[in-house]
């Protein structure tokens, strides 16, 4: 009980100071009451866990938003997916006596945290979005991530909702001996790879022979089959097909749903597909799925838009595959553009920035509408070097280690040339960049500023 009081008290103090805490209250509370998560887990009827490398924050928010159409829900919205973040999510929802107002929790859980918290939570469904190489510092290897996920899955009796287009998810499904429901994109929407895009899972994890692909969506997601054994992409129960700003969601025996995509791009279409599939697995109605999508607001840094002197889009980059999909979004923006890339190497960013060499920055060099790039952050020079090797002329690269100066520079260049601006930043630069851009917006929109003044 003391842990709950202290956790709630910290939350309350931070809120008074205008800060929205996502981890600290849970961290302190867990230190005082190590059994806190088990205690909350005992109060809810079911937990839906969302894990995987990319897209879990968006998928969690989307799914929580859909479940909320039916019943109250506890969730950790902001990507705080370690034990302290999960504890904080419960602390935010519970009363001072520790009572939760909801019997369902939709929780984003880090792959390495899953085995630790699985025994304490009644996890009924586990969604795995994909398994890519990520955060080298923490896991070292992909095999380690897969082992952690399997260990976590085996500590539950959960039904798995897996991305069937990902051979590594398929492997988890085959190795876990749990009930599995696969989702995937419609077969005929796969494209041939423009160049060698596979990094992970080129080899069959069952027999070690190479995987053959008949088509790709992105990264290792595609129509794979093993040349040496019967390992093959499963036929998905839930299928998605991108149609403009919509995702056609198909489930055998039921009429198709045309789902609004609150955020654009194939990458996000997968998140919507994952959330809708999990929602269906939970028995949610089409109305709840539609309603959840309408109510959803993209979190900070997931293609967050700012209308300033030039239109600005802010993206989070954190690993090669996620970065590739951001780069894909940037180059498919048909406007002239200035790109600001911010790379830090603090613990939360990942100390090892060698992943920059795995990401497909060559895409930028090939974009004729790209007018300039400003690199920033502690590793601004590494980033500039990477771009040089990608084939971008040095004359178009500017290094400005100070974030605010770099954003200012990008904005001036964009507005002077009528270009759009894209800012791509790693984790610890995300909040500072979002804050600077929001403040800038407030200055830029006098009406908005007046309105805010008059209501405060
Ligand atoms: Zn095989």
Automatic annotation (TrEMBL):
Annotated EC: 6.3.5.13
GO biological process terms, semicolon-separated: cell wall organization; peptidoglycan biosynthetic process; regulation of cell shape
Any one GO molecular-function label of the UniProt entry: carbon-nitrogen ligase activity on lipid II
Coiled coil: none
Family from the record: Belongs to the MurCDEF family. MurT subfamily.
PANTHER family: LIPID II ISOGLUTAMINYL SYNTHASE (GLUTAMINE-HYDROLYZING) SUBUNIT MURT (PTHR23135:SF7), MUR LIGASE FAMILY MEMBER (PTHR23135)
Name of this chain's protein: Lipid II isoglutaminyl synthase (glutamine-hydrolyzing) subunit MurT
Organism phylogeny: Bacteria, Bacillati, Bacillota, Bacilli, Bacillales
């Amino acid at each position: 009980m003391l842990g709950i009081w202290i956790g709630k008290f910290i939350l309350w103090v931070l809120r008074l100071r205008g800060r929205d805490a996502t981890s600290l209250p849970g961290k302190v509370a867990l230190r005082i009451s190590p059994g806190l998560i088990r205690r909350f887990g005992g109060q809810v009827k079911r937990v839906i866990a969302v894990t995987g490398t990319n897209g879990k924050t968006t998928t969690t928010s989307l799914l929580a938003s859909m479940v909320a159409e039916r019943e109250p829900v506890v969730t950790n919205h902001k990507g705080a997916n370690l034990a302290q973040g999960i504890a904080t999510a419960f602390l935010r929802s519970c009363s001072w006596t520790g009572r939760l107002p909801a019997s369902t929790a939709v929780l984003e859980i880090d792959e390495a945290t899953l085995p630790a918290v699985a025994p304490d939570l009644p996890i009924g469904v586990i969604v795995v979005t994909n398994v890519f190489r990520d955060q080298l510092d923490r896991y070292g290897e992909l095999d380690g991530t897969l082992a952690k996920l399997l260990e976590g899955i085996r500590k539950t009796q959960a039904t798995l909702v897996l991305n069937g287009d990902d051979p590594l998810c398929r492997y988890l499904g085959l190795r876990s001996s749990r009930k599995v429901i696969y989702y995937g994109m419609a077969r005929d929407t796969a494209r041939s790879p423009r160049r060698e895009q596979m990094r992970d899972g080129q080899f069959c994890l069952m027999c070690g022979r190479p995987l053959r692909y008949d088509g790709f969506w992105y990264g290792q997601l595609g129509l794979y089959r093993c040349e040496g054994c019967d390992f093959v992409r499963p036929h998905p129960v839930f299928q998605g097909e991108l149609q403009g700003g919509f995702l056609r969601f198909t489930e055998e025996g039921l009429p198709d749903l045309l789902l609004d995509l609150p955020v654009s791009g194939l990458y996000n279409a997968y998140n919507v597909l994952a959330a809708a599939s999990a929602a269906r697995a939970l028995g949610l109605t089409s109305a709840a799925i539609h309603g959840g999508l309408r109510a959803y607001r993209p979190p900070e840094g997931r293609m967050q838009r700012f209308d300033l002197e030039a239109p600005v889009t802010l993206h989070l980059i954190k690993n090669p595959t996620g970065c590739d999909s951001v780069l894909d979004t940037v180059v498919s923006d048909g406007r002239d553009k200035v790109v600001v890339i911010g790379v830090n190497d603090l613990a939360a960013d990942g100390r090892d920035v060698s992943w920059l060499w795995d990401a497909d920055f060559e895409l930028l060099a090939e974009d004729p509408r790209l007018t300039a790039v400003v690199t920033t952050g502690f590793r601004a020079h590494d980033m500039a070097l990477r771009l040089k090797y990608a084939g971008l002329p040095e004359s178009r690269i500017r290094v400005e280690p100070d974030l605010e100066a770099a954003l200012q520079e990008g904005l001036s260049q964009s507005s002077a040339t009528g270009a759009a601006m894209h800012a791509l930043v790693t984790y610890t630069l995300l909040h500072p960049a979002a804050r600077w851009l929001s403040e800038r917006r407030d200055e830029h929109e006098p009406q908005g500023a007046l309105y805010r003044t008059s209501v405060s």
